[in-house]
Amino acid sequence: MTPMSPERLHVPAAHAATLRRLIATRLLEAPRVFEDLDREIVHAGNEGTLPLRLEGRLCARAEERGLEPGLGYAAGFAARVVEHGVLGYALMSCATLGDALKLWIRFAPTLVGGFEIRQATGAGGLELTIGDLYPTLPGRTVALDRFVAFTLRLGELLAGVPLSALALYLPARMLSRFVAAGDGVRLPPMAADPAQIRLLVPASALDAPIATGHPAVLGVLLQQCELEHARARQPGDWVGRVERLLERCLDTPVPIETAARALCVSTRTLKRRLREEGWNYRAVVDQVRKREALRVMSNPALRIEDIAAMVGYTDQANFARAFRRWTGKAPGSYRARGSNVTPLRQPAAAEAHGDGDCDCDIAA
């Protein structure tokens, strides 16, 4: 998914209200420290949403005050489905959890604050890989933690699927923050992943029914979601078009001239369109290759040289250099670290009583 201009995006105003409530319990001088932002948020949130950048300033100030560890997870855990406006009601109107997750994946980039979810279906169920489309904006640590936590909890909120049925893989720093949130909120089985955020949903959970499902209502709500989605999307979306083209033939190098012909424009025009969206062709190719390489690296049936060929590298040494640039690790080291991780699990008593205590150490 190509990032839209952040100026076009809004988030539910309830996100800020939940954050402020949690901040007030952690910082005695919160009314004074956040006074100016509180006024802006009240003024801007009359329509039920806030500009993404304004909400980001709130998250950033919380981070500056050292409130980050556990704050985003707690905010996501405290959020409700209905806070997400028309998308929230659409989720509640789906027939099954699997249907609801499809909607969440589609509209997360535009209606929930600029996050991307990639899905892959395997024998064990659905694997969701979560990314931030705006990692350089202020406050995104708290915002990403909150989004992941709420995505994690959707199964429980919509269809009663317990957290213990899922598995969550996080980069080490994020894993530390989630463990820090364990005092007061429940945690799922977790483990470390060097470079990705992955949520595994078992196949049995995807068929879990949603009691509030209503096909007729869902149809109406989907139309409204599509309208809001279209308003936020970048006009043209040339990067997205190139991405989709490359994904169809990733094992074969596609020169920009070939891509331009396939998209029915001149090479010069394609370069200009990509530049207008803040990209160049080489960067788009690199992003698509990285995304696919990271996705398939966890498949032990594939050799490193197979993966290199799958993402368009005929020279394994060139692939190794690119992979080290993406992750800071050689492909073999990245795979070995991921395969040696033991998932973290809550003590059985904590899961049974929902008290959220976690006595586990972080897996290295």
What does this structure look like?
This protein has 364 residues and is α+β, with helices and mostly antiparallel strands. It has 2 domains: 6-230, no CATH class; 236-328, Homeodomain-like (Arc Repressor Mutant, subunit A, Orthogonal Bundle), CATH 1.10.10.60. Helices cover 55% and strands 10% of the residues. The protein has helices at residues 13-26, 30-33, 35-44, 52-64, 71-78, 85-92, 97-111, 140-159, 172-180, 203-206, 215-232, 238-248, 256-262, 267-276, 281-296, 304-310, 316-327, 331-339, 348-353; strands at residues 10-12, 49-51, 115-122, 125-132, 167-170, 190-192, 197-202. The strands form 2 sheets. The protein has a 5-stranded mixed beta sheet. The radius of gyration is 21 Å and the shape is globular.
Counted beta strands: 7
Largest sheet: 5 strands, mixed
Number of helices: 19
Give the strand line-up of the largest sheet.
3-4-7-5-6
* Tertiary shape: globular
> Helical residue percent?
55-70%
**Order of SSEs:** EHHHEHHHHEEHEHEEHHHHHHHHHH
Measured by DSSP, the beta-strand proportion falls in 5-15%
Topology:
Layout: E1 10-12, H1 13-26, H2 30-33, H3 35-44, E2 49-51, H4 52-64, H5 71-78, H6 85-92, H7 97-111, E3 115-122, E4 125-132, H8 140-159, E5 167-170, H9 172-180, E6 190-192, E7 197-202, H10 203-206, H11 215-232, H12 238-248, H13 256-262, H14 267-276, H15 281-296, H16 304-310, H17 316-327, H18 331-339, H19 348-353
Parallel strand pairs: 5-6
Antiparallel strand pairs: 1-2, 3-4, 4-7, 5-7
Helix pairs in contact: 1-4, 1-5, 4-8, 5-8, 6-7, 6-11, 7-8, 12-15, 13-14
